[in-house]
Specification:
The chain is mainly beta. It has one domain. Helices cover 3% and strands 17% of the residues. The chain has one helix and six strands; from the N terminus they run βββαβββ. The strands form three sheets. Strands 1-3 form a two-stranded parallel sheet. The longest helix is centred in the middle third of the chain and has 4 residues.
Length: 135
């Protein structure tokens, strides 16, 4: 397995991780690690809500989601030798859930009309959630 250069503890919010991530792309955010071109490495990531959505059939977590600190991102990672304006090619070699029991799941959520909704709130005004168990 490749070296993990960004590791997360799923029991802690991103603000309490040993290495902090971020929630936006901006050139003033310093890199948390640097790699050489061609390096194969592993990144661990939290979901965009920073763990607010739970593996339950209840959609109240979608209804009551806090939107002030969302869009959690791992990184950024610098590429040694790259300069502003360079075009980088990044190959994602594998993608999957955390390989630990109980963590092999994902979700699809629909916001309610009362917390911002989406494009179809006239048809789906309430919060909904579907849990996907990965095997």
């Amino acid at each position: 397995m490749p070296e993990t250069i960004f590791e997360v503890d799923l029991n802690k919010p991103m603000t309490e991780q040993s290495v902090l991530g971020h929630n936006r792309w901006h050139p003033d955010i310093p890199p948390v690690a640097a790699v050489n071109p061609g390096t194969v490495f592993r990144m661990e990531c939290k979901d965009w809500t920073d763990g607010q959505i739970k593996n339950t059939d209840d959609a109240d977590d979608v209804l009551n989601i806090g939107l002030t600190g969302v869009h959690i991102l791992s990184g950024p990672i610098a590429v040694n030798g790259a300069e502003p304006g360079d075009i980088l090619v990044v190959d994602i070699l594998d993608l999957g859930p955390f390989p630990k029991p109980g963590l092999e799941w994902g979700y699809t959520g629909i916001f309610s009309k009362q917390n911002g909704g989406g494009f179809l709130t006239d048809y789906y005004p309430d919060a909904y959630k579907a849990i996907w168990d990965f095997n």
